[in-house]
Amino acid sequence: MRTVWAIALLSLRNAVRSRVVVLLLAVLVLGVIGIPLTVKSDGTLAGYVQILVRYTLGFSMGVLLLATVWAGCAAVASEIQRRQIHLLVTKPVSPAQLWLGKWLGLVILNTVVLAVCASVTYGLLRWNTRAGQLSTADAQKLAGEIMVARARVAPEPFAVEPRVRQRLADLQTRGELPTNMAPEAIYKTLLGVAQLEAHTVAPGGKITWRCELPALGGSAPEFQVRYKLAAAALAPLRLQGRWSVHRERAGQPFELVTEHPAQGQQSLTVPGTALAGEGALLVEYANLNEAGVTLLFDPEAGLAVLVPVGGWLSNFLRALLISDCLLALVAALGVTAGSLFSLPVAAFVVFQLLIMFSTAGMIHSFATREASFAAALPGMVKAPGWVDVVMSWFYRMLEVLIMPMQNDDPLAMVATGEWIAWPVVAWTFVKQILLASGLLLLLAAAALRRRELALPTD
Amino acid sequence: MPVVEARAVTKVFRDFWRRPKVRAVDGISFEVRRGEVFGLLGPNGSGKSTTLKMILGLLHPTRGQLAVLGRSPREVRAKARVGYLPEESYLYPYLTPDETLDFYGRLFDLNARERKQRTAQLLEMLGLQHARRRTVGEFSKGMARRIGLAQALINDPDLVVLDEPTSGLDPLGCRQVKDLILTLAKRGKTILVSSHQLADVEDVCDRVAILYSGRIQAMGSVQSLLEDTHQCRVTFPDLPAAQMQPLLAAFRTALGTEPGIEHPRRDLEQFFLDVVEKARRAGGESSGAAATQGVADYLKAPASPESALQNLLPQPAAPAATPPPSAPVDNAAALREADEKLKQLLKPGSGA
Q1: ipTM rounded to 2 decimals
Q2: How far does B293 lie from chain A, in Å, by closest CA?
Q3: Under an 8 A CB cutoff, do A89 and B58 touch?
Q4: Domain A161-311 is in which class?
Q5: What is the pLDDT of residues B192-207, one digit of tens each?
Q6: Which residues from B are below 8 Å from A85, CB to CB?
Q7: Where are the domains of chain A?
Q8: pLDDT by residue (tens digit) across A150-166?
Q9: Residues in B touching A456 (Cβ below 8 Å)
Q10: For residue A209, which of A297, A307, A306, A281 has the smallest C-alpha distance?
Q11: B251 domain residue, yes or no
């Protein structure tokens, strides 16, 4: 361990004495102070918190990610290029210790820089919302609705599968199944249609969700229901509906008629009294639109019940820990690429991987939808070609390797007051540090063991 | 067991497409025995540095076998007993000498007290105490070289690999390095030197191998390789012509040819050292490395009796796959000398 620490401390000394850290900190602190002054918010207090936490700190994270890619790739690659590695690897230092030392140095550096940025952000937030700056109503809203941590409870999914299976069986019996589509693709299409049907509310109709709430420590003064609603009409409309929220048994229902435009995410504040009683929480919505418009709740964005469960600051800390794990994973990618390739090649490879990482979800979702769509077209060949096979393996890799490594944006969650549980932090640590970075360590160590570090071309 | 053992080692550098490009080392075989100073000589591109880098595990042989201290050069355990001074300064320019030596000491798992002691002793030995707060990046080539040498010795290694050890050093530094090599060798350390400075190699090496085009062209003890057994030199004080004439006449008669006569010259290195020493005594100051004569205490400490005895006993000749031309070695004389040394060693109160 002494060897690993020695190499980590050397990396830190290098960063500090080459003034890279000072420059980086200056850019980041200027960004944290400057962005809220230049970006226009929607004028609400929640919007200001969003700008400060999500976008300003998000900017710092972006800059840090880029700096980490560069520093990670340079950590080993530039040592090889400058031949300083000749003195390192002729000492009793294993490739794994070398990798760990370089990586640990970057992790410590990132943690310190992120902590400084987060402290400045939090300081700014507290300074601009200090006593006397806000009206009493805004101060209450800040404490009760914005700077809170609420658990996001998703409702139970609508049980549409049995209906879809039945429909598929009926089609098969009647011999009406399309012959140019694989049965899986037909099932997926029918499932998608059934989900949309389940989230649709006809004029005068009603939809009910059932939520199993976690055990709450104390009685919450109020909680939120967040949803996204669209209308099956082209003309701009204001949507009217009646909400009813109550427990399954012995509940005191809370009822409210709402009216809002048919766009964006909406939020409904429900008093804590609606949580009284036993059983799951039932959330009902009745379509009251007089124009006879059918409404659709977005099946993906869905509806969520947000229950206060903890303090904002500790939630902020957990968001930072998750962000730090991501930086550590990127550092691991960089150090590994730098162990395999020269600096420019390593940086190019890591940037490609990051692009793939950040667009994996979109590519995967697009590809799966397109596949079913394309297969449904008349005249399409069912037998896959080699391009299809390669692409199918690529998507499988996205599914198995890259997508499980992703998290919801923790800064966006903390900015909207969404609770980040400790198990989420722990799972992020396990998958991004222990599993992914550990795998990269093994890869880099094997490569360094095989690699000749004094070739005339290095 | 030899400290370094090479058996038909070949190194071929390949291009990006894995096609052979250069055969840098071509089937060389040699052994470096415990306690000897072994020199690798050769012109540029002869394969000296490639051989050293394979011994250090920085390059891998294409063919053949290489063992360092009985292990593969790539094994971490073998590296714990090796010190390496590369040809160029590959030090971190942002570290001070103290930090540099502390860093490399940590890599050998030395504790803080040991690192501090050794750092102080090495800096004193190399005359760099006054520069310990400056960063290595500000150093002259000679001063950086001295720090390079210090890091090679921080672990008190059994095998010291020195690539062009006197390159970039002034004559004072060269003399100091050569003295250090001899001191280390006396302690039973094995020194492997690669150099262009033939005079330096001649001064310190017990045996040398001369490489050309990746092959060993000659190998043996310096004495056996350089001795000209067809000529003889007789040295006596300068005599007046009257006394010299009969002597020359006697030589002429005995040899049947004119003998060569010349006044012996001091070598330039010794002359330079004398001049600098006089200037230093007169009070001159230098911003570079200070002149020192000592050796770090931990490097002077008596070696283990086992290694001292092994050092004294004659080693079997290295069986080579393709034996290079070598001068005969007088084994009886070597045994007599070893016997004398052994007696000295076993006297009560004597050190190794």
Answers
A1: 0.76
A2: 27
A3: yes
A4: mainly beta
A5: 999 888 888 888 999 9
A6: 90
A7: 2-148+319-450, 161-311
A8: 888 889 999 999 999 99
A9: 13
A10: A281
A11: no
